[in-house]
Amino acid sequence: xxxxxxxxxxxxxxxxxxxxxxxxxxxxxxxxxxxxxxxxxxxxxxxxxxxxxxxxxxxxxxxxxxxxxxxxxxxxxxxxxxxxxxxxxxxxxxxxxxxxxxxxxxxxxxxxxxxxxxxxxxxxxxxxxxxxxxxxx
Length: 137
Hints:
By secondary structure, this protein is of the alpha/beta class. A hairpin with a 5-residue loop joins β3 and β4. It has helices at 15-25, 84-93, 129-136; strands at residues 7-12, 29-36, 41-47, 53-58, 77-81, 102-103, 110-115, 121-126. The longest helix has 11 residues, at 15-25. The relative contact order is 0.18. The mean pLDDT is 89. It starts with 6 loop residues before the first strand and ends with a helix. The protein contains 3 helices and 8 strands.
């Protein structure tokens, strides 16, 4: 039976820029980093606060991912946050463009989108601490 998402893998065009974005801007901690000579590829494992991981890969000459208009496949990666306005301020201060905060008409939760250095759509989805704790109980 499935217990959750273990990791999400992202292929980047500029490894150094993506590593800086996910570690310095988003604040993810490095678990492991390896250069795979046979593939001429870096693999960076990053820890997510909930115990999951984000794997960052670099591959030479990887084709761009179609993103907009809505392409088939993974639509976006969403991160749960306690205070969406605070996170948006931090992202903007780091030079990251963030869309206006919207409200999901079905859940009444606030959310917004931004992009990583390769244009991968990323979402912030506000789940206040009190609500997250009651969901676990």
